[in-house]
Amino acid sequence: MLKNQPISRIPLLDLDRQYQGIRDEILAAIERVCSLQQFVLGPEVEAFEGELAAYLGAGYAVGCASGTDALWLSLAAAGVKSGERVITTPFSFFASASSIVRAGAEPIFVDIDPHTLNLDPQKVRTALENPGQGERAKIKALLPVHLYGQCADMTAFERIASEYGLLLIEDAAQAVGAKWGAKNAGSIGIAAAFSFYPTKNLSAYGDAGIVTTNDPKIALDLRRLRNHGSPERYLHTEFGWNARMDAMQAAVLRVKLRRIDRWTASRRQHAETYNLLLKSAGLFERVLQPLQTSPHAFHVFHQYVIRSQRRDELRAFLKSREIATEVYYPIPLHLQPVFSYLGYKEGDLPEAERASKEVLALPMFPELTQEEIKRVVDTIAEFYR
Ligand SMILES: *Cc1c(COP(=O)(O)O)cnc(C)c1O
After folding, report:
1. pLDDT value of position 135
2. Which residue ranges have their beta carbon within 6 Å of ligand 1?
3. Which of 76, 177, 179, 259 would be 298's cystine partner, CB 3.0–4.6 Å?
4. Does 259 have pLDDT greater than 60?
5. Is residue 370 within a helix (H) or strand (E), and if so which, with residue range?
6. Which residue ranges form the domains of the chain, and what is each CATH number?
7. Considering only CA atoms, which residue is closest to atom 7 of ligand 1?
8. Statement: residue 280 has pLDDT above 90
9. What is the distance in A from the centroid of ligand 1 to the CA of 58?
10. Residue 41 scores a pLDDT above 50
11. How far is Cα 120 from Cα 124, in angstroms, rounded to an integer?
12. Which residues are CB-contacts of 248 (< 8 A; sequence separation ≥ 6)?
């Protein structure tokens, strides 16, 4: 009988399991917004901004309509201007680079560290020491991304930013609760952008994002920029955008923020279990090499990612066994058609290109069970047998 029982699907992310545990509080929060009838900005958004800033140890938080808005507005508010250039990673979600363009500037892509898959500070230094003709003066900012929930090497980037007089802005879209040493992601650079898109580790029930900063002027500028450059109603002093946070999302996020540390602890435990089981199945060389978590990083495992030289075959095999996986990201940004005007070609950033062919994100969410993790690892082991 058991033999014919269909195996259940293991999803990459199961938000319904999370919802079942917080349903009453979520519905009460939504009811509160409906009763108040204030749907954009207002008291829920202000309360969430205060709670998130306190949680991260940042001076200010400014709620935005999405992580993308948070990112380009933080670049603009920090002072990145038209014609300037910003150094970032080619191995990230598209918005890390498109937000630079949206702020009027141009991205410079520098290769990643193959161990952490984050922007490599040594290569950033090399790029700064050998800029193109007249380029050095135009380079205004560094935009490292805390990929998969692990901070980029912020000690090195703080040092580089101060040596070269550059603004340091964090793309912390995947890293609520992550730390570098004693510092929280989002409290290190001059500004940081977070995303609360539903798949992120702290997620809303729609689009939302936020900027954190310790600089009161940047916070004030952001409040104007997210609201059509309007310091007071119907007075416009510059061109901002409609990038305001929705109150319903803030209300949902307040419920979830109270649980984020518990959820992060579960993610970290699952990552540990994956690591142990993969190693004991003899798969270290095949899927964990050369990945590393930096000893300075408190990794929140927004994603748990392995590397395989037979990635696409492995992925198809897992799919045939009802195990969902994803590739973040299959095309490095310097090779995206829309960035062809920058003149990069295949082979320019070999580590990012190799990673895009090898990485595979396995199921990861707080409510994932030990049995599910074991089945994922057993199935990977079966593939390699
Ligand atoms: C999700 C994400 C963004 C954009 O956030 P949205 O809320 O989807 O606009 C930016 N950068 C990174 C690294 C992301 O993962």
Report:
1. 72
2. 66-68, 71, 92-93, 95-96, 145, 171, 173-174, 195, 197, 207, 209
3. 179
4. yes
5. helix 370-384
6. 17-257 (3.40.640.10), 260-384 (3.90.1150.10)
7. 67
8. yes
9. 20
10. yes
11. 6
12. 30, 33, 39, 44, 205, 206
